[in-house]
Structures are given as C-alpha cells and as structure tokens.
Amino acid sequence: MNIEVKVIPSAKKKEISFENGIFKIKLNSKPQDGKANKEMIEFISKKLKIAKSKISIIRGEKQKSKLIKIEGIENFDEIRYKLLN
User: pTM higher than 0.85 for the full model?
Assistant: First the structure.
C-alpha cells in the first residue's frame, strides 16, 4: 500500500496528523544526510508495529512531500488508525 506523506523536520515534538488525504509527520531530526528520512521510517514502523525493512520511500527522498510504500498492510483505514493513535 502506498501513502502520501509530508514531512516537517526540526519540529519540537514528533506527531502525525491527517489532512486532505495526506499524512503530516512532524520529526525532531534536521533534513541533513537522510536523518529525517531515517527517523520517519523508524517512527512509522513503531506506530504500525512492522519492521523498518517493510517501509520504503518511492518518491521524494530529498523533498518534504513523499510517497511511501508500506508492505504487509493493504487496508488504508488500518494504516490511518494505527498512525493516528
């Protein structure tokens, strides 16, 4: 399942919200040397309770807007519920 995300680096606290069909993910890391991408994958993996290897960036590796592939969960409502709770 692919999901659209917008990453907001250098935030004071980590959190995920959902607006207009896009997940907004606030992260503590700065967007340098892939640190924010790594933190985003770790954060999503913990929320979904799946291995980090099941999450990959398809598009937007060096941009705030990204397309993320999540393997092992094919139900969008399940992904949304787990990420937001």
Answer: yes
